[in-house]
Design goal:
The complex is a heterodimer. By secondary structure, chain A is mainly alpha-helical. Chain A is built from 15 helices and no strands. In chain A, helix 1 packs antiparallel against helix 8, helix 9 runs antiparallel to helix 13 and helix 14 packs antiparallel against helix 15. Chain A is globular and about 55 Å long. Chain A starts with a helix and ends with a helix. The model of chain A has no long low-confidence stretch (mean pLDDT 91). In chain B, strands 3-23-22-19-18 form a 5-stranded mixed beta sheet. Chain B is globular and about 70 Å long. Chain B is of the alpha+beta class. Chain B is built from 13 helices and 23 strands. The mean pLDDT of chain B is 90. In chain B, helix 2 crosses helix 6. The chains are: A mainly alpha, B alpha+beta. Chains A and B meet through helix 1, helix 5 and helix 6 of A and helix 9, strand 8 and strand 10 of B.
Chain lengths: 313, 478
């Protein structure tokens, strides 16, 4: 496979996964913001800090304005991480590999792009239709995942798409987890009302799983276990790394080269760090550095991966 | 709805549907079934067609402010119809013409017999900017230079088809021919099925077959690629479309590298040799070591690999000398010279402005002439003698006198008209026809029909998409 195509597949998958994550967080936050909670209304501050490139002053001005926050997150041209920009970049990548991806995948990415570029969108997002629009976007995102799964051939390309997808998901979970525990000063041995954790869990589609799996009242601890170490939770860090492991094996088996060993070692260190961590060693002092290290190592692995397979220009 | 209510025809024009007394026979079926629809139903079909193009990404981008706006190429829903008999005549004419043009290219880059016999003046070739000395003496597989052509035909007021120009370099638009038919299948399924229209959908397979045959003979499983300038090229959709339909790899210049006179593509598994390149990049951008040194689209060293016969390039390099608009005037002589036959499809009379006598004639009769640049396409650089203002004419005249070899003149030919669905009514608009012909070792094959381009502005004769043109599905029916 051409290195350029592998590169574009990787980024197509990453951007689409990023869009999906952004949409789930935004939709969750939008619905929760309609409920008054004990601390008064939820603001958009944490979401805007995590997902946009807006300045602190802009965030301050936007955080209590739901319609403006939605615009910034979804349709803004100035925020380079808005849904519109992300889908635009996904489509740009898809365009360059139109002959490789199936017609169905291309048409889904393309129609999503045209949907998000409709001029009337801002108006609808500031009306009662906002939730419907968020549903519609999410449906497109899910549809993309399904169409990709059904129509794309397995092989090297599939491997790179999945590497992109799960690396992105891994990042997202680490970053979101860090943000939420930061707001609690990393106090994992205290217990916050589970209602307060709903935002994180629903953003990662894990709220129902949490209710079914964890019975203790040590919510801070349990939530951390779920998002980092629960093998059955498709958004957990360990699950994403497991998938990366599988697809990395596949890709290196199909593309034999001497440098593969170094890449495998780098990934092995990262994976075992998560697989073999004793949860008891994590506390309010060690959690933050631990998450930062993880993030750094995922970054390092991604860099190596792209050096190895995507150097062409 | 009343089809003919607003269908007004200008005098002295061949209308392909209506001979001013009655509907021509081959249009009966379409005419009568269109009459059954009301305006809303047709407008609905028109919208549906637009959405189909949009969702497939068959668009071009218009840049204004910082946001690019995507537009579709206008598509008119009413098919243009050609009879099987007319088509057979066109087919024979194009086959003959391409045979002669291929022989001309072989001759002009080798023995140059046609110059020695003074059929074509040597000065004309020597002054042609597209004559490529770098490929002199290079032999190409099966002596085929023009594998893919899009010869433009027009129909004059006498109902005859004329050749307007030969596009022998990288003609585009074939994806529209194929997609237009797919859209028609959605909007007029019964009508299409009932009309027994000849099939066009096998074009990509025919092309693929020819590309495979161009590979160096000893290769059993040749690797064929389509070389594109990239996603910002206006024809990028077509490149991706053709690559997908043929199952070949779509590459950009940066994906290729030349090592020891062989061409390779850079893959995740290392380098993989390429045997045939269907390029959609112009000659002068192909190899920065030989042509434009600042071209980032090409592949350094490609020409050497070509010269060594390690890679086939389709179409061949240097074809521009044969579709130069001044050389065009000599194609009938080429047909007589190489084939000893009379041309089946006539040329449009063409005046060479480098000849003082012809130039005077053109200048004296400018209101009946169109002046074109010999090396421009896309409808750019044209002077329509009946529309030009005195100031423009003074400027154009000066440009011509400074460099007469770069211009030719032709009498303005009123292109034939066909019905179009515009603003809820049927109106006559001018069209041309571009059939796509493929030359392989077995001869010339042409998919029946081709692309009908239509000038959507009233009374305009310019069909180019850059200047308000659109397209139509083209039916050849028996």
């Amino acid at each position: 496979m051409l290195s350029r195509i592998a590169d574009s597949l990787f980024w197509l998958a990453r951007y689409m996964e990023r869009a999906e994550g952004l949409l789930r967080v935004t939709a969750t936050h939008y619905l929760l913001s309609l409920d008054k909670d004990v601390n008064g209304a939820l603001t958009w501050q944490s979401v805007l800090e995590t997902f946009t490139t807006a300045t602190p002053a802009e965030i301050e001005a936007t955080k209590n304005q739901t319609a403006d926050a939605l615009k910034l997150l979804l349709t803004s041209n100035s925020n380079s991480n808005s849904l519109k920009m992300i889908i635009g970049k996904a489509r740009e990548n898809a365009r360059g590999i139109q002959d490789y991806i199936t017609k169905e995948v291309w048409e889904e990415v393309n129609s999503f792009y045209h949907l998000i570029n409709q001029p009337t969108l801002d108006k609808r997002l500031s009306s009662y239709e906002a939730a419907d629009m968020l549903d519609l976007f999410t449906r497109h995102s899910v549809l993309y995942t399904g169409i990709t799964d059904i129509t794309m051939a397995r092989g090297t390309g599939w491997g790179f798409m999945n590497l992109g997808k799960y690396i992105e998901r891994c990042f997202e979970t680490i970053v979101l987890t860090n943000k939420h525990y930061q707001m609690n000063h990393y106090k994992i041995h205290e217990s916050k009302d589970i209602m307060q954790w709903r935002q994180l869990l629903m953003s990662l589609s894990g709220y129902e799983l949490h209710l079914k799996t964890y019975r203790s009242s040590a919510d801070n601890h349990d939530v951390l276990h779920q998002v980092l170490f629960n093998e059955d939770f498709p958004h957990s860090v360990v699950y994403s790394l497991g998938r990366i492991d599988r697809h990395l094996q596949d890709v290196t088996r199909r593309n034999v080269s001497e440098e593969n060993a170094a890449l495998m070692r780098c990934f092995g260190r990262l994976y075992s760090k998560v697989k073999h961590t004793d949860m008891d060693t994590l506390n309010n002092h060690t959690l933050h550095p631990y998450l930062e290290e993880l993030r750094g190592e995922v970054l390092q692995f991604t860099k190596l991966l792209s050096q190895q397979f995507f150097s062409y220009a | 709805m009343g089809f003919l209510d607003q269908y007004d025809l200008s005098p002295n024009i061949w209308d392909e549907m209506y001979d001013r007394k009655q509907i021509r026979e081959h249009y009966h079926k379409v005419f009568h079934s269109l009459e059954q629809f009301d305006v809303n139903a047709l407008q609905q079909k028109d919208r549906l067609a637009g959405e189909l193009f949009m969702n497939q990404g068959i668009t071009f981008t218009v840049y204004s402010d910082d946001a690019g706006i995507e537009r579709i190429f206008p598509f008119d829903i009413i098919p243009r119809i050609i009879t099987g008999k007319e088509w057979n005549h066109i087919e024979l004419g194009i086959q003959q013409r391409l045979k002669a043009l291929n022989l001309f290219l072989k001759d002009i880059y080798n023995e140059q017999q046609i110059l020695k016999d003074k059929i074509v003046p040597a000065a004309l070739i020597a002054s042609c900017p597209h004559y490529t000395r770098e490929v002199f003496g290079i032999r190409v597989p099966h002596d085929i230079y023009v594998h893919i052509s899009g010869i433009d035909l027009i129909r004059g007021e006498d109902g005859q088809f004329y050749v307007l120009e030969d596009n022998l370099r990288t003609p585009s638009g074939v994806s529209y021919m194929l997609e237009n038919r797919e859209v028609t299948k959605r909007i007029f399924p019964e009508l299409l099925a009932a009309s027994h229209v000849r099939r066009v959908s096998n074009y990509p397979l025919m092309l693929h077959e020819i590309l495979l045959q161009m590979a160096p003979a000893q290769i059993s499983n040749p690797s064929v690629v389509l070389l594109t300038p990239g996603i910002y090229n206006s024809a990028y959709y077509e490149h991706a479309f053709l690559a997908r339909m043929m199952g070949i790899t779509l590459v950009e210049g940066r994906d290729l590298v030349v090592d020891n006179h062989k061409v390779y593509m850079k893959t995740t598994e290392g380098l993989e040799q390429v045997h045939v390149i269907y390029r959609r990049i112009d000659d002068e951008y192909l190899d920065p070591l030989v042509f434009k040194p600042d071209s980032a689209l090409g592949v350094p060293g490609l020409m050497n690999a070509y010269r060594m016969g390690n890679v086939a390039i389709v179409n061949a390099i240097g074809n521009g000398v044969a579709d130069d608009k001044a050389v065009y005037a000599y194609v009938p002589q080429m047909i007589r010279y190489y084939l000893n036959e009379e041309p089946i499809l006539p040329n449009v009379p063409t005046y060479e402005l480098s000849d003082p006598e012809q130039r005077k004639h053109v200048f004296d009769n400018i209101e009946r002439m169109v002046i074109k640049r010999t090396n421009q396409s896309g409808g750019y650089g044209m002077v329509m003698g009946n529309k030009v203002t005195p100031e423009e004419w003074i400027k154009a005249k000066a440009a011509i006198e400074a460099d007469p070899r770069s211009f030719i003149a032709q009498p303005i030919i009123k292109l034939s008209t066909v019905p179009c669905f515009i603003d809820g009514t049927f109106q006559a608009r001018h069209v041309d026809l571009r059939p796509y012909a493929l030359c392989g070792p077995q001869g010339v094959q042409i998919v029946p029909g081709g692309l009908t381009r239509v000038a959507l502005r009233k009374d305009s004769l310019i069909v180019n998409s850059s200047q308000g043109g659109g397209s139509k599905d083209t039916w050849v029916i028996d």
